[in-house]
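Request: How about a record?
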Amino acid sequence: MRLGLSVCLASTLALAAAPAMADTITIATVNNGDMIRMQGYTDEFTKQTGHDVEWVTLEENVLRQRVTTDITTKGGQFDIMTIGMYEAPIWGSNGWLVPLDDLSEEYDVDDILPAMAGGLSHDGTLYAAPFYGESSMIMYRTDLMEEAGLEMPDAPSWAFIAKAARAMTDRENDINGICLRGKAGWGEGGAFITAMANSFGARVFDEEWNAQLDSREWNDTLTFFVNMMEDSGPAGYATNGFNENLSLFQQGKCGMWIDATVAASFVTNPDDSTVADKVGFALAPDNGMGVRSNWLWAWALAIPAGTQKEDAAKQFIEWATSKDYIELVAANEGWANVPPGARTSLYENANYQEVPFAKMTLDSILSADPNNSTVDPTPYVGVQFAAIPEWAGFWTEVSQEFSAAYAGQQTVEEALEKAQAIVNDAVEAAGYR
């Protein structure tokens, strides 16, 4: 679809010469805008290498289920998987992924932001290359904020956000003061509420691996969230995830949206967003406890061990996560639409520094600390997840209980009581204590 727009990517992996034998590689990926944009450029990769690409594009929760099942059963359905900071170090340590320790000099692996490389490595070995990196931040309607007589601080508190959300809500005109994830799934609503809980002083485990879901801090978090969303959020927020809230914001139906920094290019794109020229940015909120509520994540490309097409898969990963790919997108669609958060050189680029959300994205990424994500100490590493193999299973169940509370099917107290039991049972069965 963009064949008339050509940028030379020959430097990456010496791609100018097609291989003696072409392969067809199958890639599993998530159905978000940057990944779909990448698919539109696949013909460029094929033209340079001779390799064809088949895409399996899935909703986030479904993608996680499919790739996890395939990697653990050695199903062999995919030559490249889109995974993140949770899976990469765990799967790498299990020998389930091909190490990316022989990438070409032209690729410049040292240019990957340290926060991203560290989160995608195990024992210093990179197991997945970041297509883009993200934290979370506030995206807000500057016009509605002004009409409400308020001014967004660069680093607001949750109290300010709740106040502003109420002030911007206009039910008669279908404007919700705030749109947030309530959708079940450990990486959907489960990720958001965990990052939010950090700023309320909550933690999932104490230092002895005892679950803390029955704590006052967790009750405070969920009660605040539910009250704010009932006052100022959209109907059905319990089933809204990233894509649903993106659509609402682009349609002008949200005063504020706290979510992935990568969304900034979509809400400011006039081709897709009705409020593109009215969007401001701020750091994710805090409660004055020294911890903000932003997460740290990368959607990255990894190669499952056992693929018969490792060479072609590595060529694709080098192409898709290279500096030259960034230049390709910039030349065709503008600097605001390049995949963010992965490379240091991007943030040193004068052209990209003019993008209105570039600095806030980088500030958000740099302010997330996986080793110190909570007010009180914990035995785990991770911001919006604990980096243990069992997390995806039990936190998916917990997020389902939370979503049921958001939908009014049970109380916050009932949801937290069930969550406490789910988490304690999981870590006891796994032998953590």
